[in-house]
């Protein structure tokens, strides 16, 4: 009986998912605990935005919006052409929108909060108004912290609300998702 319980504990301790599979949407995917990583089958080198030439890994909030998608999301983006790593924060609650006059704050347990302001530490790209890309040097600091920690609290100020919305996000699966994106970045038909 003890051996059976010990074996069950070992099996449950392994990564959740962590087996690449080809999805019907035309991409390789892998579930890594609380993160989903994906690399499309094709690379569109002259695409008008990063979606055509990148791999992605995301985790989202338990809170969802009217489209039943996470209201708050962290996304790691690997450029398949040059290997660069990017980080974006998506803010799409059912009601309200980000207040750009106040900082988005990320708090890792035991560490100092990292405040990110639009224009100095965050920017929008490609005409998308609810996805905020983290600029250097904060990007490197955040990605390093994400690799080392199990979770982060994301605080997002919304227009017309005095207190920011606080969302807990899991970081379990970040390292495996980064490994997956590095491995599958060039697994496409044209290369």
Please provide a written account of the structure.
This protein is an alpha+beta fold and 191 residues long. It has a single domain (19-184), classed as Immunoglobulin-like (Sandwich), CATH 2.60.40. Helices cover 18% and strands 32% of the residues. It has three helices and twelve strands, in the order αββββββββββαββα. The strands form two sheets. It has an eight-stranded antiparallel sheet. A four-stranded antiparallel sheet has the order 8-7-11-12, with helices on one face. A hairpin with an 8-residue loop joins β11 (151-156) and β12 (165-170). It is globular, with a radius of gyration of 18 Å. Mean pLDDT is 88; it is low at 1-16.
Tell me the strand percentage band.
25-35%
What oligomeric state best describes the polypeptide chains here?
single chain
Relevant CATH superfamily: Invasion associated locus B (IalB) protein
Q: Radius of gyration from the CA trace?
A: 18 Å
Please mark out the parts with pLDDT under 50 across 5 or more consecutive residues, or reply none.
Answer: 1-16
**Terminal residue distance:** 51 Å
Q: Write down the overall mean pLDDT.
A: 88
State the CATH architecture.
Answer: Sandwich
What CATH first level would be assigned? Mainly Beta
């Amino acid at each position: 009986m003890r051996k059976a319980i010990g074996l069950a504990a070992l099996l449950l301790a392994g990564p959740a998912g962590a087996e690449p599979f080809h999805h019907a949407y035309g991409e390789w995917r892998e579930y890594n605990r609380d993160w989903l990583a994906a690399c499309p089958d094709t690379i569109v080198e002259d695409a008008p935005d990063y979606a055509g030439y990148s791999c992605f890994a995301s985790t989202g909030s338990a809170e969802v919006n009217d489209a039943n998608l996470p209201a708050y999301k962290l996304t790691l983006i690997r450029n398949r052409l040059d290997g660069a790593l990017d980080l974006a924060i998506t803010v799409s609650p059912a009601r309200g929108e980000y207040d750009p006059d106040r900082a988005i704050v990320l708090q890792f347990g035991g560490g100092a909060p990292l405040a990110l302001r639009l224009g100095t530490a965050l920017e929008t790209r490609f005409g998308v108004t609810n996805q905020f890309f983290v600029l250097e040097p904060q990007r490197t600091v955040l990605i390093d912290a994400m690799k080392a920690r199990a979770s982060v609290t994301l605080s997002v100020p919304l227009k017309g609300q005095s207190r920011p919305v606080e969302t807990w996000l899991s970081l379990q699966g970040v390292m495996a998702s980064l490994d997956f994106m590095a491995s599958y970045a060039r697994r496409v038909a044209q290369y």
